[in-house]
Amino acid sequence: MLNILQIIFSLIGVVIAINDLNVSSVDLSSYVYLFLGASFLTLAASQLKEKKKRIGMLTIFVTLLMFYVSFQGIFFT
Predict the structure, then answer these.
(1) How far is CA 50 from the centre of its chain?
(2) pTM for this one?
(3) Cβ 42 vs Cβ 6: under 8 Å
(4) Coil, strand, or helix at residue 50?
(5) HSE value, Cβ hemisphere, 13 Å, CA-based, for 3
(6) Is the pLDDT of residue 5 over 90?
(7) Three-class SS state of 12
(8) Is 24 left (phi over 0), alpha (psi -120 to 50) or beta?
(9) Which of 3, 13, 48, 54 has the highest CB neighbour number within 10 Å of its CB?
(10) Are 43 and 4 within 8 A, CB to CB?
């Protein structure tokens, strides 16, 4: 289930990134970070489920950073 969610979030992020390249605007880059952060969150959950705590916690830290950057871009620009 987590792998399917990770693939879906990654595909949505890639589609938005490709669209952002074609349109040449920076309005959608925050949403790319949001969906890639969600993809990283599912990766962190699967790593923690496999008892790999160090890489799981590192991935959660990266996820929080990506969510922070995306929310800054969405709400404060």
Answers:
(1) 20
(2) 0.86
(3) yes
(4) coil
(5) 0
(6) yes
(7) helix
(8) left
(9) 13
(10) no
